[in-house]
Structures are given as structure tokens and as C-alpha cells.
User: What shape does this take?
Amino acid sequence: MALRRLLDQDAQRERRSQQLLLERLSRVSERLLAKEIASTTVLMVKRWQASGQVGLPDEHAKRIQSLLSRIYRASIEGMAKRITAAVKSSTSPDVIKEQAKWDLFVAQYIAEFGGEKIAQISDTTRAQIMTQISIGQKAGLGQREIAKLISSNAALIGRQRGALIARTETHGAGNFGAKKQAESTGLNLRREWIAASQPGRTRDTHAEADGDVVGMDEPFIVGGVELNYPGDPSGPAEEVINCRCAVGYIVVD
Assistant: This one.
């Protein structure tokens, strides 16, 4: 039985290629998310000053939904195309059929994870503002001082959260797209967990999983939990957020 990697034969080089692609795809969405979170924070603080209530603007969830859809589409297509290129390197792929398939992958991902993610992001925005208000009140600050302090930090909060959300969502959706595309190739494949080789930055649980090989329908066991791929949104936050691991695909000939 012969084994070969579908993509780059060097596992760490393949991980770096995936990481560079996903980082590039996340940059535009990162800025847009930062702007949305910052502007929403300022608006919510103004409403709190006027009414004493911390409520989310009606359009916030819709704008987050639009941004997440953009992230998911770019990430799923970007990673799926790498699988297509590796499998069909000697022939021209049917672009129309491939696009229809990627559209389906995007719809599946949004249906499974999109609603929960929108709620999580919205709830976190509200919770952060409420926490900062509470801290200000305990420190003896007045409403105007608290509002000014939160608003002055809104851009920084937006940048930090925008970067975290964009990286996490890009990673999960990209690996989902690669897996779905690999499943559609008809090849006899196995999947390999490739941990980031960055001592001090790579989770111990992810480093321990490095080199683990599973079937296409089997989950990886990482930190005692099942993950379908790095960044799997069904996994716990401590094993998913800011993960830089990758999946390699091994062809069994």
C-alpha cells in the first residue's frame, strides 16, 4: 500500500501555505468587522446614555450575517480550490460545476454554524459594554465619564475583536471547505493533523495531536475532545480560537 500526500509533501510547508492563504483571506473582513463592532459600540453607549438600557441596534445582526457570509464564501472556495488544483493538475476542472458545489458547501456551513456565530458575536458585544459600565460604576465614575471612556476605546476593541473573529471564522470555514472538496474527489484519502511548530505558542494538546492520521469520516481527538478539523466550530473555544494547525490529505494508492 503506497501513501502520498495530496498537496505539499512537506507537512510544515503545507501548513504554512494554508495559513498564508487564510490570513490573506481574513484581512479585508477583519477591517470590516472591526469597523462594525466599533461603530455599534459607540451607538450602544449613546443609547445607554439616553435610556439607561444597553440594547443592540436592529441592523447589527444583519450586518454581522453579511460579513460572516463573505468570510465563509471566500474561505471555503479558497481552500477547496487547492484540493481541486491538486487532483486535476493535468486537466482543466469544470469551473461551473465546481462553483455550484462550493455554493452548496457555503450554504451548508451557514445553515449549520451561521446562526449560532451571529448570536455569539452580538451577545459578546453587548456583554463587553455592560462589563465596562459595571467597572466604571464601581470605580465611582459618572455616566458621561463612563460613556466617554468606552467610546474612546471602541476602535481598539473593534480591531482586537475583528481580528480574532476573522481569523477564527476563516480557519474553521476554510478547513470545512477543504474537507468537503476532498470527500468529493473519489480518492481513497486519510487526514493528518499538522500542528504549528511554534514552541510556546502552540497548545500542548495540539502539539500532541501532530501527525495523527484518521479516516475521512473520523474525528481527530484533541485535548480529549472530538474535532473534525482545526478550527471546528463545534469544538470548545479553548481548542479552536486562534488555532494555527492544518489538515493534510494522504492518498492511499
